[in-house]
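Renewal narrative, Specific Aim 1. Our central claim is that a sequence can be written position by position from structural information alone. The example that follows is taken directly from our test logs and has not been curated for this report. It begins with the C-alpha cells describing the chain, in the order in which they were read.
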C-alpha cells in the first residue's frame, strides 16, 4: 500500500481552507510516524535508495482555494456581463418600440391634418358654389322681373296715351302724394324695434344659413329682427312670406315683410323700413344692404304686426 493511500481525497467540492489545513497536519503526522517506523526497522534491511517526493497538502489546499476564488470571480464577471447585455438588449428594444410608436402617432396626426384640410377646402368650395348658384338665380329672377316690368310699363304707356291731360295731371298728383307719404313714414312700437334692428345690421356679411350676430342670410335677418318685437317667425323665407296678411306695395308700412317670387314659394325676403326703402341680406357680394324698392322691386308683401 502506498503512503498516499491514507490521505483523504481532496476532490470533494467546496472544502474550506481550514479543513484542508487540518487534514494536511494529520497527514504530516502520519508521514512522520511512517518515517520513524522505517528508521527502527531491522538492522539488516536494505537502505531506501529511491526518494518519492509527495505533494504537500498545505500547498495543494492553497492552490485549490485560489482556483475556487478565481472561478467564482470569473463566474461573477460572466453574470455581470450577461446582465449588462440583457439590459442593453432591453434598452434597444424599448427604444425601437418608442420610435415605432412615435412614428405611428406622427403619421396619425399628419393624416388627421390632411383630412381636416380637405374637409375645409370641400366646405369652402361648396359654399362658393352655393353662393354662385344663388347669385345666378337672383340675376335670372331679376332679369325676368325687369322684363315683366318693361312689358307692363309699355302696356301702361300705350294705355295712358289714350287718356286726357286731366288724367295725367291727376296721376302726377297721386304719385307726388304717395312719395310724400313714403318719406314721412315713421315706425313706432314693435315696428320701430324691427326696423332699428334691421338697419343696425347693414354692412354685415351674407352667409348662407347665417343667423348672426355678424353674418346673415335673408330669412335669418328677418327672423332675428322680428324676435326683437317678441315675435317668432319660421326660419325659411317661403314660410315667412306665407304668414300674416297680404298687402299691396302701394300700402306698405315699416316692418312689413317683402318677398320675391310667389307668396308660398318665395326665394328671398327683406324688411320694409319706410321711405320707399328696405333692408335685406342680399348676396355674398353685397352683404346686408339698404336699398330703394326701385333697385329690385319685390313681388309682394305681408304684414305680421
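The sequence written for that structure reads:
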Amino acid at each position: 500500500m502506498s503512503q498516499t493511500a491514507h490521505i483523504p481525497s481532496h476532490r470533494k467540492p467546496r472544502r474550506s481552507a481550514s479543513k484542508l489545513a487540518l487534514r494536511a497536519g494529520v497527514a504530516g503526522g502520519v508521514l512522520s510516524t511512517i518515517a520513524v517506523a522505517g528508521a527502527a526497522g531491522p538492522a539488516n534491511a536494505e537502505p531506501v535508495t529511491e526518494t518519492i517526493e509527495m505533494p504537500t497538502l498545505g500547498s495543494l489546499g492553497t492552490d485549490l482555494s485560489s482556483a475556487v476564488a478565481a472561478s467564482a470571480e470569473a463566474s461573477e464577471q460572466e453574470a455581470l456581463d450577461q446582465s449588462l447585455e440583457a439590459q442593453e438588449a432591453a434598452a434597444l428594444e424599448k427604444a425601437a418600440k418608442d420610435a415605432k410608436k412615435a412614428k405611428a402617432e406622427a403619421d396619425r396626426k399628419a393624416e388627421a391634418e390632411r383630412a381636416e384640410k380637405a374637409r375645409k377646402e370641400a366646405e369652402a368650395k361648396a359654399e362658393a358654389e352655393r353662393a354662385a348658384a344663388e347669385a345666378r338665380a337672383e340675376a335670372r329672377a331679376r332679369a325676368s322681373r325687369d322684363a315683366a316690368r318693361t312689358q307692363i310699363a309699355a302696356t301702361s304707356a300705350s294705355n295712358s296715351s289714350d287718356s286726357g291731360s286731366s288724367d295725367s295731371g291727376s296721376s302726377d298728383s297721386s304719385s307726388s302724394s304717395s312719395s310724400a307719404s313714403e318719406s314721412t313714414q315713421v315706425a313706432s312700437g314693435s315696428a320701430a324695434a324691427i326696423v332699428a334692428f334691421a338697419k343696425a345690421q347693414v354692412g354685415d356679411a351674407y352667409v348662407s344659413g347665417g343667423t348672426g350676430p355678424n353674418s346673415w342670410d335673408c330669412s335669418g335677418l328677418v327672423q332675428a329682427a322680428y324676435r326683437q318685437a317678441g315675435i317668432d317667425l319660421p326660419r325659411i323665407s317661403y314660410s315667412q312670406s306665407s304668414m300674416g296678411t297680404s298687402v299691396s306695395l302701394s300700402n306698405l308700412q315699416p316692418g312689413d315683410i317683402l318677398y320675391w317670387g310667389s307668396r308660398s314659394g318665395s326665394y328671398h325676403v327683406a324688411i320694409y323700413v319706410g321711405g320707399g326703402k328696405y333692408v335685406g341680406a342680399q348676396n355674398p357680394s353685397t352683404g346686408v344692404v339698404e336699398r330703394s324698392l326701385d333697385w329690385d322691386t319685390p313681388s309682394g308683401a305681408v304684414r305680421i304686426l
